[in-house]
Design brief:
This protein is mainly alpha-helical. The protein is built from three helices and no strands. It has one domain.
């Protein structure tokens, strides 16, 4: 998987972050379950 991403310019071994989401520059999405908990508590 990584060689393909490197060929497409979507991954570099020098990238900072722990997850694939970090490496691809994707935004963090809040869990739909966490949102349900905050709505129920409020």
């Amino acid at each position: 998987m990584l060689p393909i991403l490197e060929q497409r310019g979507r991954h570099s071994r020098d990238q900072i972050g722990d997850t694939l989401r970090d490496h691809l520059g994707l935004p963090f999405r809040e869990s739909r379950y966490a949102l349900a908990d905050t709505k129920a508590a409020g």
